[in-house]
Write a structure and sequence with these properties.
By secondary structure, this protein is an alpha/beta fold. It is 34% helix and 27% strand. It holds the Pfam family ABC_tran. GO terms for molecular function: ATP binding; ATP hydrolysis activity.
């Protein structure tokens, strides 16, 4: 299988604290990859390094077989933390601002509105959108540049069951469009339904990486990794 993204011994230190400690991820093209971990495990810090928002302290990132370069950001779409939405603008106007920034084709606005099912929102201001609609608009913004890799950090946070189901169907459709997805979450049941492969981070350490097979008990696997890393941290602490 061809690799979309790999990291080699990726580290991020904040003063003396190791937020990410020698993490080596292997994400294949066309996969939905679930990056799991408890809150504060180092997931968001890892994703911020992959999207150029933070500089690694050490280690390497490879994108599409080559050493990661800031130019690769044009092929990476990301929704990390809250969507960067102007509340007083409509969905289309929000996308227009982003499209002008990126310099992409204006026709792409209609395409992404259709992908995320926000075509019929008209002049309604984004501030009046439900949380699920705002998340979908954030994903539409991330899709504008036709990315090969889409990074979603806790995309179902705060959504109701209907919003979660709509988002799940949307995420499932991306590999068919040639988009590889990295999905970070601490909601195991959600990842179990979506991911082809998972990486489990705890205490900044990648304790497990492997394919997710039918019938696997993700909760047991997750708890074992978290406990093991916690013990290792106590021994070295």
């Amino acid at each position: 299988m061809e690799m979309m993204l790999q990291t080699q011994n990726l580290c991020k230190y904040f003063r003396k604290q190791k937020a990410v400690n020698n993490v080596s991820l292997n994400i294949e093209k066309g996969q939905i990859y679930g990056l799991l971990g408890p809150n504060g495990a180092g997931k968001s810090t890892t994703l911020k390094m992959l999207t150029g928002m933070m500089k690694p302290t050490a280690g390497k990132i490879y994108f599409d077989g080559k050493l990661w370069d800031r130019k690769d950001l044009s092929k990476i779409g990301a929704l990390i933390e809250n969507p960067p939405i102007y509340e007083n603008l409509s969905a289309r106007e929000n996308l227009k601002v982003r499209q002008l920034l990126l310099g992409t084709d204006e026709n792409r606005i209609d395409e992404v509105l259709q992908i995320v099912s926000l075509t019929n929102t008209g002049k309604k201001k984004a501030g009046q959108f439900s949380l699920g609609m705002k998340q979908r608009l954030g994903i539409a913004m991330a899709l504008l540049g036709e990315p090969e890799l889409l990074i979603l950090d806790e995309p179902t946070n705060g959504l109701d069951p209907i919003g979660i189901e709509e988002l799940r169907e949307l995420i499932r459709s991306f590999p068919e469009q040639g988009i590889t997805v990295i999905l970070s979450s601490h909601i195991l049941s959600e990842v179990q339904l979506l991911a082809d492969k998972v990486g489990i981070i705890s205490g900044g350490i990648l304790g497990y990486e492997g394919a997710l097979k039918q019938g696997d008990n993700l909760e047991d696997l997750f708890m074992n990794v978290v406990r093991k890393n916690r013990k290792a941290g106590e021994i070295h602490g």
